[in-house]
Amino acid sequence: MPLFFTLNLIILDIKLDKTDDLNGLITVTVTPEDYKANLVEKLKDYAKKANLKGFRKGKVPISLIKKMVGPGLMLDELNKILIERLNAYIVDEKLNLIGNPLPKSALDMALDVDADQEIVFDYEVGFAPEIKLSYDVKVSPARYKVVMDDAQLDKEVRNLAERYGKMENPEESMSGDTLYGKLFAQPGQEDKVPDGFRFGSSPMVMLPLKPENLPADSPFKDMLAGKKADDVIEGIKLDEIIAEDADQKSYWRFAKTQHNYNPESTPEMVSDEELSVLKGLTFNFEVKKVNRIIPEELNADFFARIFPSEVIEDVDAFREKLRAEMEKYFDEDADRLVKNQIADAIMEVTPVNLPVEFLKKWLINSEEKVTKDNIEEEWAKFEKGLAWTLLTKQMRTENPELEVTDEDMRNQVISLVSQQFGAEIEGDRLNNIVDYYLKDEKMSEQVFRDLADKKIFDFVLTKVSPAEQEITATEYIKLGK
Questions:
Q1: Pairwise CA distance, residues 57 & 61, whole Å
Q2: What tens digit of pLDDT does each residue of 42-54 get?
Q3: How many C-beta atoms lie closer than 10 Å to residue 73's C-beta?
Q4: 202-209 and 178-185 as β-strands: parallel, antiparallel, unpaired?
Q5: Tens digits of per-residue pLDDT, 360-409?
């Protein structure tokens, strides 16, 4: 697919070689006629401004200017031509690319200002796939209607009372107290410790042991009372004090980060292999201090701190208000969950073929945190989001009414301002505030994303009907959603 531009007497040869449906190579040929005139003008301009010892200003010989800055100016001119014409070619040919073109090699050839050099430059490109949307999902997602049960409500009331309560550090623990201390491998197991977890001669992590947070079958639930600083609980396995693998990894990731601290690097994840080794070790727990929380009294002052805009005078009214707020929170979370489930279900039945190797190269070149060492991990996170982005783009192509308009944006901001300031804001004052918010880049981007997201999911809900299922808050939390 060759193309010849004739613009301002510049003739530029560009051609595309598609290696397959998803990958291609754009070759750009730049002749001396394309860049020589502008280069000569830049050299003359530089010579007029040059201030070099031994020469009067503007009197430095052009031959010396060419030696000093010629190759650099020539490189700038070539890069400018390449980028401008490559972008124009992509637009004119309506190439549906994904990611940005990648130079196949650096423009590092020896540049001679006086020679008539022809430059041939290649760019790797990836193409967005053709997508045939399907809404014939294999399993209808569940839309949970979460009911706040008394057990979970009791727990939330207790958590709030403790959060606003007072902390004490008694000498000796009693039932319900939290022990804060050091978990470390027993002596004699040093050779089994994975690299990066050593602290002295043993792996160690600081953590709290709270009875209600221990696994239900933990043998240590009844062993936390009667303990003082420097007491040691022996013979502990990780699964006996931390139920979930994800939580175990979080504690050990923090320990790994602390022991190998580098402020310029992202904390390393704990691998399944490392966790498996740690699970096989036996630990001791050395108490450093006892934490006891004295819960806040459930009275009108406490209720006002939790719900400052409400007048609540008794515990029953407080519980009902808290129940309503928690059900609202769970309702929003259930919406988020069903959106994710619907997206997953649609992606399962709508293949999205991607130029994987090209995109991996592009990620490594464009994202500072992505390297050859972690590209597989980063790709796994990137691929799903990209696939959904392409699917929603196709939905908007097939259904133009899903596009977010300026009118949509303005109406949404008017709604947000009215919620924030009330009905007393109207007329010119309202319009001025709305205009101010719309000019704020971050605000506008957030409003646009929210509207785009809502339009897409309102649309897909007409295609995929989730099955509503009532569930208690306790059951919902146990699902790990």
A1: 11
A2: 878 777 777 777 6
A3: 21
A4: antiparallel
A5: 999 999 988 889 988 998 898 899 999 999 999 999 999 999 999 999 99
Cβ contact 5:85 at 8 Å: yes
Angle at 446 between CA 440 and CA 447, to 5 degrees: 85
CA 356 remoteness from chain centre: 20
28, 82 Cβ separation under 8 angstroms: yes
H or E segment to which residue 293 belongs: strand 283-294
| 260, 250 contact by CB (below 8 A) | no
Q: Mean pLDDT, to the nearest integer, of 297-325? A: 95
Closest CA to 364 of 381, 384, 383, 378: 378
- Ranges of each domain in the chain: 3-126, 167-294, 302-478
| Residue 21 and residue 36 in contact, taking contact as beta carbons nearer than 8 Å | no
Fold of 3-126: Alpha-Beta Plaits (3.30.70)
Q: How far apart are CA 302 and CA 313, in angstroms?
A: 10
Which pair of tokens denotes residue 85? 């014409």
For residue 470, the one-letter residue type is E
Q: Could you give the CA distance from residue 205 to residue 449 in angstroms, rounded to a whole number?
A: 41
Q: Are 192 and 254 in contact (CB under 8 A)?
A: no
Strand partners, 456: none
Q: What is the pTM of this model?
A: 0.71
CB 282 within 8 A of CB 185: yes
CA-angle at 427, arms to 423 and 431, nearest 5°: 100
Q: Are strands 467-472 and 142-147 parallel, antiparallel or unpaired?
A: parallel
Q: Which residues contact 200 (CB under 8 A, 6 or more apart)?
A: none
Beta bridge partners, 236, equal 283
Question: Directed axis angle between helix 427-439 and helix 441-460, to 10°?
Answer: 90
Under a CB-based contact definition with an 8 Å cutoff, are residues 327 and 146 in contact? yes
Rg (CA), the chain: 32
Candidates 3, 83, 67, 100; CA nearest to 35 is 83
Determine the distance from the C-alpha atom of residue 148 to the mean position of all C-alpha atoms in its chain, rounded to a whole number: 31
Q: Distance of CA 53 to CAs 44, 45, 63, Å?
A: 18, 18, 16
Angle at 194 between CA 190 and CA 195, to 5 degrees: 100
Phi, psi of 215 (to 5 degrees): -55, 150
